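Working notes for the structural subgroup meeting. M.R. asked for a predicted model of this chain before we commit to crystallization trials. I am recording the input and output together here so anyone reviewing the notebook later can reproduce the run.

Input as submitted:
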Amino acid sequence: MPLCYLDTSGLVKRYVPEAGSAWVTHLCEQEPLATSLIAVTEIASALARRAREGSLTEQQRDTLFRAVVRDARTLVLVDTNRLVAQRAAQLLLAAPAHFRLRALDAIHLASAVHTFARARRRGVATGTFVSADEALLAAARWAGLTTQNPESEQ
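Returned structure, recorded in token form:
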């Protein structure tokens, strides 16, 4: 199976039932998968927001976050090092004006580009950039990545 990259909007579907969750759960069983280390923080933010809004209890939030931390051990976690940060900045500055590329999205995009290039150098097959964010998917295609939206992969 080729290495796929999930941004936070894709990976969170593994823990919170929403459109595309079954597809993401199936993909997560197929390893290998990569994501940025920032996804762990972003998922914590999403779970905390849901608890504040009342769609999760604090106990559910904490149980789900423990699952995130446990599952993160099975992922290729990309650190936001100098190379990734510089690539993200380059993407932000070079992206056409009609893209809504934000800083954390650019970090995910740079992390995927970096991870896929590294994998190919090692002879590892690479797959798709997975996100439920259409604006980020458009930017990923512009950056030369193959993309999938789990919400359209029902």
